[in-house]
Amino acid sequence: MSSQDIPEENLPAAQATAHGELADEKHPFADPGLPPHEHRIQDVDERAAKRSERSVALMFTVSMLATIGFIASYVAIDHDKSVFVFPLGHINALNFALGLTLGVALFCIGAGAVHWARTLMSDVEVADERHPIEASPEVRAKVHADFKQGAKESVIGRRKLIRNTMLGAVALVPLSGVVLLRDLGPLPEDKLRHTLWSKGKLLVNMNTNEPLRPSDVAVGSLTFAKPEGLEEHDHAFQNEIAKAALMIVRIQPDDIKDKRELEWSHEGIVAYSKICTHVGCPISLYEQQTHHVLCPCHQSTFDLSDGARVIFGPAGHALPQLRIGVNDEGYLEALGDFEEPVGPAFWERG
Amino acid sequence: MSTQESTTARSRGKAPAGERVADWADGRLGIYSLAKANMRKIFPDHWSFMLGEVCLYSFLIIILTGVYLTLFFHPSMNEVEYHGSYVPLQGQLMSEAYKSTLDISFDVRGGLLIRQIHHWAAIVFLAGMFVHMMRVFFTGAFRKPREINWLFGFLLFVLGMFTGFTGYSLPDDLLSGTGVRFTQGAILSVPIVGTYISMFLFGGEFPGDDMVARFYSIHILLLPGIMLGLVVAHLILVFYHKHTQFAGPGKTNKNVVGMPLLPVYMAKAGGFFFLVFGVIAILAGIATVNPIWALGPYRPDQVSTGAQPDWYMGFAEGLVRAMPGWEINFWGHTLVLGVFIPLAIFGLFLAAIALYPFIESWVTGDKREHHILDRPRNAPTRTGLGVAWVTAYMIMLIGGGNDIIATHFHLSINAVTWFVRIGFFVGPVVAFVITKRICLGLQRRDKDKVLHGREAGIIKRLPHGEFIEVHEPLSQEQLYTLTAHEQYRPAEIGPAVDDNGVERKAKGSQKLRAKLSKAYYGEGSQIPKPTVEEYKEITSGHGHH
After folding, report:
1. What is the mean pLDDT of residues A205-222?
2. Where does the chain cross the membrane (chain B) (predicted)?
3. Does B325 touch chain A (CB under 8 A)?
4. What does the angle CA B157 – CA A279 – CA A226 come to, to the nearest 5 degrees?
């Protein structure tokens, strides 16, 4: 990234610019210098200045009143009272009053200060010199010499053993910090491959908390289910439901295009993981006629009548299906865990 | 006069109290030398210079309100049953984080207002940084000596995004939890280490019990600590470099023209803090943002439609939504390109901003200091590139809300998604070409104005019946301002043979630079400035035509 190979004359400063001869007074584009100061009305008319003073003072006074209003609202307004304010509708009265009074109190201080600066403070433009950021050659040389002197006195260049062992020590010591991070969490192992489902677990309706019978699942309905034994109060509920959440629909067996899907279903009742294979949102929109389900987060669309393959959107693979059957008592049950990991894909998924 | 009397009286006795305090402090802190350099420091005036101030002040507001919120917020994922004053959620199971956010909103008087100010200020902060960076970019204020400060600003923008994200994830509501789930899914897509990062970040499987507490420490300590340091460094450099200014009469690369810090900018900038704070407070009072009580507590198996991140994360959301679901399976592994590519583009897209000053300075080979701002039209290629970037960003922002666009405008979600997929590639190119054309057109107009004066709107009839429009010559100030900008010549590779006739081999990088330089400054990329000869020829001659 050096500029050595760019000829100097390519830089504008070296070109004959329109301002090449600034000294020439007749140069048509020459810099005329700072324009003369133009007086504001407040500079020449004391009455106008007085008016400005009063405006500024008025704004500061309004601010004081608004602060008193803030405290009064805080004390007087019940915190769950709502009021109708056009065009905002019904809103929390306290929040509205506090926001408005605080806002006015602050805004008026600002408006007063700015008005003061614009109308009454001197507005004469002045120029400050800039100085180059980089040091003069003398300073530069002095610093370099000082550094060399310091380095020499430290003998770091001569005593290589010290330098190398020091570098080694300093490089190694942060490792302790890295090691300490190990217990942030467990290793992944096969945690993402298993869910709470296993052979014989009943499918429990998420809403009613009752085990599902085939007759509970009507054509065109979408039912969410969880594995038997998982209760909302359980400590592990969130983690387990994040993987085990299930959606159940009934499709006419003739309409099921995928052979395995039909095999894993019961009388056309199919159970799929509710967790999107894209980045893990719960899928919740179901189109009865086409048996398409749509993830509301990123619009991945799956065809539940065809092995839940992806028909649109960013998901990379089909939703995992849970093999289900009916037990002796006539309840729907799982015939095992999902055969592949649910949810988003990951490196070890394969 | 009485004032005179009192001064003389004082000088005989003790100095005024303020002076004595200042003297005391100077003896210990050396404040006078600091004040000497800065108290009457000159700042130039332009409306666009206040955009950075908006960011600074909203950052301060966020810190002030954030400290208040920590007094009431419980960063815990313990499940509790709700029995507070918000009736619709009575008896619901929720995390303590969510419950304490409800309490802040409904049981702490003014708590809701502070929460709203905090969130609104964050939205304004990020928007302010976005616009402030555009200002700096399009006027070339990032050039030497300000490249490092550009990087500081860039880091503030990126850290601001993540601080915002970790912040709005804290209430553990259904919407933000969904966002965290999305983030976790994206982390899983990282090859080789994805599952490990996820397990370590969440302390096990998603969502686990640690997320809120960890995000809390990141949100209130780690990131804002770094940001505060960067803000201070950013401001120190602004003071040290002195502010840039636009070209104009009396304004050169070696001076800075404006008004002094004390009193004008003390009042204007100080007042502006209150203006920003006031506007945000009123916004917080009348417009509810993130009503977590309407969303409900987070459950990994539940979701609402129309889930959207805060606006500054929208383009990342768009990248993820628009990307086709590519997955490659090999040797028992999965390469989740459908999620990982958007993640990578997200990084590269941002890195492009950080690198740009260095790319441009390499292309121009210009190592001089620049304190005079470019008008965007006078750097057509840079302006075009900037607009192209913003276009890609905006298209992805649309992509991030493709469901909202589809439902509100009765469009097909598939069509919107396809528009975004194609638009991401086509839009920036079209924007670049159009922007460059507009810039060149504006340059031509400037040239025209310099040479022929401005249209006076007066139609004059000449004795022989011809009508002409009178052009009024520009003032010296205007002529100077319109011709003050510099124009680069494209860099050349140099002769193919050296002085001794030996063939010289141009390096690949040199060739690339010559090409880029031609694209930036070659024919068709800038309109040559009017020259003195042209001007004299036209003005000395016979009438205007």
Report:
1. 92
2. 49-73, 117-138, 150-170, 182-203, 215-240, 269-289, 335-359, 379-399, 411-434
3. yes
4. 135
- Phi and psi, residue A155, nearest 5°: 55, 20
- Domain range for residue B93? 43-303
> Residue A101: inside a domain, yes or no?
yes
Residues A185, B201: C-beta atoms closer than 8 Å: yes
> Which pLDDT belongs to residue B13?
65
Number of domains in chain A: 2
Q: What is the rounded distance in angstroms from the CA atom of residue A97 to the CA atom of residue B282?
A: 9
Pairwise CA distance, residues A250 & A240, whole Å? 25
Q: What percent of chain B has pLDDT above 90?
A: 81
In this prediction, residue A197 carries a pLDDT of 94
Residues B19 and B66 both lie in one domain: no
Shared domain check, B92 and B24: no
Measured CA angle at B181 (ends B180, B183), to 5 deg: 60
What's the gap in Å between the CA of B465 and the closest CA on chain A?
33
Q: Which residues of B touch A91 (CB under 8 A)?
A: 286, 288
CB–CB contact B182 A279 (8 Å): yes
B41/A310 CB distance under 8 A: no
* C-beta atoms of B201 and A184 within 8 A: yes
Neighboring chain A residues of B504 at a CB cutoff of 8 Å: none
Structure tokens at B142: 């990032």
Q: What is the pLDDT of residue A6?
A: 52
User: Closest residue of B to A300, CA-based?
Assistant: B321
Which of residues B303, B323, B349 is at a domain's end? B303
Mark yes or no for CB contact A346/B336 under 8 Å.
yes
Cβ–Cβ gap A114/B267 under 8 Å: yes
Q: Kindly indicate the confidence band of residue A10, based on its pLDDT and cuts at 50, 70 and 90.
A: low
**Spans of chain B below 50 pLDDT:** 1-9, 544-545
Q: Are B271 and B279 in contact (CB under 8 A)?
A: no
CB B381 within 8 A of CB B433: no
Domain that holds residue A101: 41-119
Domain boundary among B281, B303, B325: B303
Q: For B159-197, what is each residue's pLDDT tens digit? A: 999 999 999 999 999 999 999 999 999 999 999 999 999
B267 close contact with A: CB closer than 8 A: yes
* B175 domain residue, yes or no: yes
Closest residue, chain B, to A4 (C-alpha): B365
Shared-domain flag, residues B175 and B266: yes
Query: What's the pLDDT at A192?
Result: 92
- Percent with pLDDT over 70 in chain B: 97
Number of domains in chain B: 2
The interface predicted TM-score (ipTM) is 0.90
| pLDDT confidence bin for A89, thresholds 50/70/90 | confident
**Residue B523 resides in a domain:** no
How many CB atoms neighbour CB B441 within 10 A? 13
Measured from the Cβ of residue A181, the count of other Cβ atoms closer than 10 Å reads 9
A200 and A326 assigned to the same domain: yes
Distance separating alpha carbons of residues A272 and A339, to the nearest angstrom: 12
Q: What is the pLDDT of residue B231?
A: 98
The answer to whether B278 contacts A105, with C-beta atoms less than 8 Å apart, is yes
Which chain A residue has its CA at the smallest distance from B506's CA? A5
Residue of chain A nearest B186, judged by CA positions: A279
Interface contact flag, A347 B145, Cβ < 8 Å: no
Task: With residue A169 as reference, give the H or E element that holds it.
Answer: helix A160-172
Same domain, B184 and B279: yes
| DSSP H helical ranges for B365-408 | 380-400, 402-408
Residue B190 lies in a domain: yes
Looking at the structure, tell me whether residues B153 and B296 fall in a common domain: yes
